[in-house]
Amino acid sequence: MPYHIDLHCHSWFSGDGVSAPEELIASAKKKGLHGFALTDHNTSEGFQYLLDQGLARADGQPVNGFLIIPGVEVTTAEGHLLCLGVTLPNLKRTPAAEVCKIVHGLGGLAIPPHPYDLFRAGIREAVLETLEIDGLEVFNAATTLKRYNRQAFEYATAKKLPMTAGSDAHHEAAMGTAYTILDTEDFSVRGILGQIAKGTALNQRYLTRRDKFRKTWNNWMRLRRKRGGKAAE
C-alpha cells in the first residue's frame, strides 16, 4: 500500500517552529497524510513529548493508524542533516561524517536536506561526496529558488541516491505541502524507512507565499530573541 509521509517537519520544540506536535498531527490527518517524521532542530524533545502523550510508540508502530517517525535535523559543522528513525542528543556543530556514523550505529538514516539552497544551511556538494548518506532530499517545499531542488534531483540521479521530499513545515498549515510516497506492506518506522532505499514517489508542491513569509518571520524573530538575550547578558 502506498503511504504518504512528510519526512521533514518542525514543531515548537524547534527554535523557529510555532505549532504544538498535536497540531501537526491534526493538520497532517486532515490533509490525508499517513504520518510524518518530526525533525526538530538539534533536539528529540518533541518526539519524547509525543511518546509521553501516547501519540507515538517506542516500538515504531502507528497509533490509531497514524505513524510518527522520530528524527532530528542536526546542524552539523557543515550544514543541516536529517537523521531519521533515531532520537539524538544535541549534536550541533558535530562534523557531518561523525553524525552519519552515530545515526547508522543506531539503525537510522542520514539524508541531507536542501543541499543546493545557497540561502540555507545545506551540506554542499563537495562535502556530500565524502559522506555515507542514505538518500537526498530532492524536493523541499520551502526552497528559496526552484532551481535548487532541480540541482538536488540531478545530483541524486547522477549518484543513484534514493530521493525524498518534505514540506519543511514550521507551522501546522504547511504540513504535507510536499511529501514522500512509500509503497510497503510494513506500516512501521522500520518498514517506511526501509522502503526509501527500495524506491519512492514524490509529491512536489511549494509553500504558499503566506507560509513562506510566516517561516521567514519566525526565523527573524528567533534571531532577534537570541540577540536580545546576548545583549541582556
Q: Would you give an account of this structure?
A:
With 233 residues, this protein is α/β, with parallel strands linked by helices. It has a single domain (2-232), classed as Metal-dependent hydrolases (TIM Barrel). 34% of the residues lie in helices and 22% in strands. It has 7 helices and 9 strands. It has helices spanning 21-30, 45-52, 96-105, 125-128, 146-159, 189-198, 209-232, and strands at 2-9, 35-41, 67-76, 79-84, 109-111, 136-140, 163-166, 179-183, 201-203. The strands form 2 sheets. A 7-stranded mixed sheet has the order 5-4-3-2-1-8-9, sandwiched between helices. The protein is globular, with a radius of gyration of 16 Å. Residues 226-233 have low confidence and may be disordered.
Radius of gyration: 16 Å
**Strand residues, percent:** 15-25%
* Helix count, DSSP H or I runs of 4 or more residues: 7
User: Order of strands across the widest beta sheet?
Assistant: 5-4-3-2-1-8-9
End-to-end separation in angstroms reads 54 Å
Assign the CATH class: Alpha Beta
The count of strands amounts to 9
Q: What would the CATH topology be?
A: TIM Barrel
Low-pLDDT stretches are: 226-233
Structural class call reads: alpha/beta
Biggest β-sheet description: 7 strands, mixed
- Could you report the average pLDDT, rounded to the nearest whole number? 92
CATH superfamily: Metal-dependent hydrolases
Principal-axes geometry comes out as: globular
Number of domains: 1
Please provide the ordered H/E string of secondary-structure elements. EHEHEEHEHEHEEHEH
**What would CATH call the architecture?**
Alpha-Beta Barrel
Helix content: 25-40%
